[in-house]
Amino acid sequence: MLTEIIIGIVAVLIVVAVAYWLGHKSGASKQDKYWEEQIPDYRKDAIMKSRAVLGGQFSEQLAPYLPDFEYLPTECRFIGKPIDFIVFRGMDEKKIDEVVFVEVKSGNSKLNQHEKNLKDAIEKKKVKWMEYRIPEELTKKGDVEDRIKDIVNDKD
Which residues pair with 87 in a beta bridge? Predict the structure, then answer.
C-alpha cells in the first residue's frame, strides 16, 4: 500500500513537471512569435526617428542660409550642443558689437532643460569673459619632453 502511494505521488510529480515544461515552452514560443511580429514595426519606428533627428541636425546647420534668418552666415559659428549657434554680430566689419546665442527649432519642438538653463543664465547676464594664457615654458622652442619634465619637476 505504501509503495502504491509513493508510486502515485511520483507519477503525479512527473505529470506536473511535464505539464510545467510544456506550458513554459508553449509560452516562450508564443512570446518569441509575438516579438518577431513586432520587430518590423520597431525597426520602422527607429528609422523614422533617426531620419527626423538627422533632418533636424541638417536643418540646424543650414539655418543661417534660410530666409528670415536675421544674421549673416559668415558671422555664425555652429556649436551644436548645448546651443546651435553663436553669432558674432559685426565680425565681418572687424567690429563685434554683439554676441548672440541662437537655438534653432522646427515644428513643435521645445527647449530641453539644458537649453532652458542656458537661456536663463544668459538672460540673468551670468556671462563672463576669460583669457587663458599658455605657460611660457610650453611655448618656447626646443625639446618638448624636456620642457614638460621641467614643469612637472617644478611642481613636486
Answer: 76, 100
| C-alpha cell, 137 | 615654458
Sorted by where each begins, the domain ranges of the chain are 1-68, 70-123
Angle at 60 between CA 59 and CA 65, to 5 degrees: 75
Burial class (CB in 10 A: 0-12, 13-18, 19+), 84: buried
- The 10s digit of each residue's pLDDT in 95-118 is 999 999 999 988 788 999 999 999
Helix or strand run (H / E) with residue 89: strand 85-89
Residue 82 · residue 114 · CB < 8 Å: yes
Q: Report whether 40 contacts 61 (CB < 8 A).
A: no
